[in-house]
Amino acid sequence: MNLTSRLCRLRALEMEDLEAMYGWENDVDMWRVSGTTAPFSRHVLSRLIEEQQFDIYATRQLRLVVEVASMEGYEAVGAVDLFEFDPQNRRAGVGIMITKPYRRQGLAADALQAVERYAREVLHLHQLWCSTTADNEASIALFRKAGYEECGRRREWLLTPQGALDELLWQKIL
Length: 174
Description:
Shape: globular
Low-confidence stretches: none
Distance between the termini: 17 Å
CATH class: Alpha Beta
CATH architecture: 3-Layer(aba) Sandwich
CATH topology: Aminopeptidase
Mean pLDDT: 90
Order of helices and strands: EHHHHEEEHEHEE
Number of strands: 7
Helix content: 25-40%
Strand content: 35-45%
Radius of gyration: 16 Å
């Protein structure tokens, strides 16, 4: 299966991605959308990378690195996660992160299409689902445009220093 799309390609996570992943996972601006509450150590992240060498059927999750062509070859600019993989019910959660300099260029939509194709054609999934905060306009627009339907709302689900936020639930039948 070719995990290349119009603007980017997706590839397996490798140990060489440790420093990039360390930066992504410890970006406090991302913690609100990822549910992270404490920094990750390099040791913990290296173990996560090692676990990615196992099959998604064993780990129930998969992280793919989003790369774009650059003068030096390819540059890692984000990640797409499949999580809570449920082969019996043929579904998984999906999450996507693109680094700030590469946002609003269509990369998230392109990577999402590629991972949906992989989920449908290789994993034979029936649906993908995700959640967003009600104020995350970029993610809401991304998932709506990609054909995800809002299927639920958890009121005042996430507490922030600015107050409680609703969480929106989305799903797409593949």
